[in-house]
Amino acid sequence: MNVVLVVFDSLRKDCIGVYGEPPWGPVQTPHLNALAEESLVFDRAYPESLPTLPTRRALYTGRRVYPFENGDFRLKGDFVGAAGWGPIPEDQDTLAELFQRHGWRTGLIADVYHMFKPSKNYSRGFDQWTFLRGQECDPYRSGPEPSRQEIDYWLQKELQRPDKVAFLRKCLKNMHDRTTEADYFNARVFAEAIRWLEQNQDADQFFLTVESFDPHEPWFVPESYRRLYDDGDGPQHVISGYADTSQLSPELLRRTRANYSGLVTMCDRWFGFFYEKLLRMGLLDETLLIVTSDHGHSIGDKAYMGKRGYPSDPSVFDVPVFIRHPEGLGAGRRTGAIIQHHDLTAEMLHFAGIEPAGRLDGMPVFEKALRGEPLRDHATVGWGSTVTVVSADWHMNCKVDGSGPFLYDLSAESPYERNLAGENPELVAQLFAVAVEDAGGGYPEYLMELARNQKDAPGCSALAARPS
Questions:
Q1: Do 256 and 159 contact (CB within 8 A), yes or no?
Q2: Considering 62, 236, 417, 428, which has the largest number of Cβ atoms within 10 A of its Cβ?
Q3: What is the dihedral of CA 153, 155, 160, 165, to 10 degrees?
Q4: Do the domain assignments include residue 44?
């Protein structure tokens, strides 16, 4: 049997049709919807920790990253990112290393450039790893410089700040000669994954990881996809301000959502090509296929654009998970069992019959979920100096010193409209105690200092605020 893991970056759960729709209306995802009909669909899946690199470290090892012990990374060749924004510890086996050690051929196809920066090691254990260059600020190209007209078209003058302009300039350099749909990143990732399947047909069994940085910003997408959601002409907006959306006109907010939705639909289409290849090669009957996302992205939700760990929100923290079993087990079924990314690691190893040498913090979830057996009674998600605890009935978010709590009643008709923390201090204390217990009884001092010194720690918008 084979194992294929597909991970999208910043794919909102509610932008996949089987999960509903975002506040601005439905998004077309026919291929992921079709996959749901053949999969066990998890309705309550959450990251272990956030953002990009901590998420993948947990997914690649099955080990908890929260509470980011020894996670205050300051590595050459990278910015000072969120807590845990670093390499995989050398004493932790990766999924690829375990599969490789047990005779599986391993492959990684990815354009998530953070994984390949200096001092990073997320390619460990892969017989082949293919890094597709050019996303975001990857130092892929140094020219030509984009024109002022290009800058003003993609980022309106009233929204231009030096850091945003510099970011956009780099993105435009990297995509300078992109002319056809096949030149776009998600198309290249899945085309390369298809090539890997073709070139490795002689493998007795394989483990393939496909990482698509799309639909992460910048939301450059062929115009035909954007026009599915907004047929107007005029200025575009493709990057987040990591701020409230009061500075955006309704037209620009609509255009931003349309670009994101179009990119989601494009990701769905090219995933469809990859899925079709698995089908035509006869691999689906002997392959466990798992599809998920690291997190979502707020695009005007609660008047905010970006992603953040405080206050946490389902637009970012709820993630899709599809597990397609080669024997059709669980096809078309859904489960409300609470799971996290590191459980997927344990599930893949369990399916392959591989016993890890070290401990796993995740647990196999597929068979228990099918039988309706209890799994987790809560999920604890760390992001920098903040923590979120989600139980069957409650969503609690605060800083790691216990201050600034948000508490939402998930049984309410509109759960996230009212913060009930002030009315339920005992419940907040109970849920925070769960977070501390999952942290091993306490937090590293640097996280406590961040919590004390930051009034608000809105995820990626606070990365640059960390002392370098």
A1: no
A2: 62
A3: -90
A4: yes
CA distances from residue 364 to 36, 210, 334, 349, 368 in whole angstroms, order as listed = 20, 21, 17, 8, 8
Residue 196 sits at φ, ψ, to 5 deg, of -60, -45
Count of domains observed in the chain: 1
Task: Give the angle subtended at the CA of 267 by the CAs of 46 and 323, to the nearest 5°.
Answer: 45
Strands of the sheet containing 243-244, edge to edge, are 243-244, 304-306, 298-301
Residue 105 backbone zone (phi > 0: left; psi -120 to 50: alpha; other: beta): beta
What sections of 227-371 are H helices per DSSP?
250-280, 314-317, 341-352, 366-371
C-alpha distance from residue 465 to each of 3, 85, 179, 354, 402 (Å): 40, 15, 37, 42, 21
Report residue 392 as tokens: 């069957």
- Token pair 């909102």 is at which residue? 12
Query: What's the predicted TM-score (pTM) here?
Result: 0.97
pLDDT of residue 456: 52
Give, in degrees to the nearest 5, the angle at Cα 56 between 52 and 58: 125
Q: Give the residue among 50, 29, 95 at the shortest CA–CA distance from 319.
A: 50
Can you give the residue range of the structural domain that contains 352? 2-140+171-376
Q: Is residue 413 part of a domain?
A: no
Predicted confidence (pLDDT) per residue in 97-155, tens digit: 999 999 999 999 999 999 999 999 999 999 999 999 999 999 999 999 999 999 999 99
Q: At 161, which amino acid appears? A: R
What is the CB-side half-sphere exposure of residue 175 using CA atoms within 13 A?
23
Span between the terminal Cα atoms of the chain, in Å: 46
Rounded Cα gap, residues 155 and 163, in angstroms: 12
In the three-class reduction of DSSP (H, G, I as helix; E, B as strand; rest coil), residue 42 is classed as strand
Contact 122, 91 (CB under 8 A): no
- Given a contact cutoff of 8 angstroms between Cβ atoms, the answer to whether 106 and 100 are in contact is yes
CA distances from residue 112 to 32, 36, 212, 302 in whole angstroms, order as listed: 21, 25, 7, 28
Provide the token pair at 79: 């910015």
Asked whether residue 277 is assigned to any structural domain, the reply reads yes
Burial level of 417, CB count in 10 A (0-12/13-18/19+)?
Answer: exposed
d(CA 426, CA 396): 12
Give the whole-angstrom CA distance, residue 447 versus residue 27.
38
Q: For position 15, which CATH number holds?
A: 3.40.720.10
Look at 58 and 358; give whichever has higher pLDDT.
58
Q: What is the pLDDT of residues 181-202, one digit of tens each?
A: 999 999 999 999 999 999 999 9
Chain CA centroid to CA 102, Å: 28
Q: Give domain status of residue 443, yes or no.
A: no
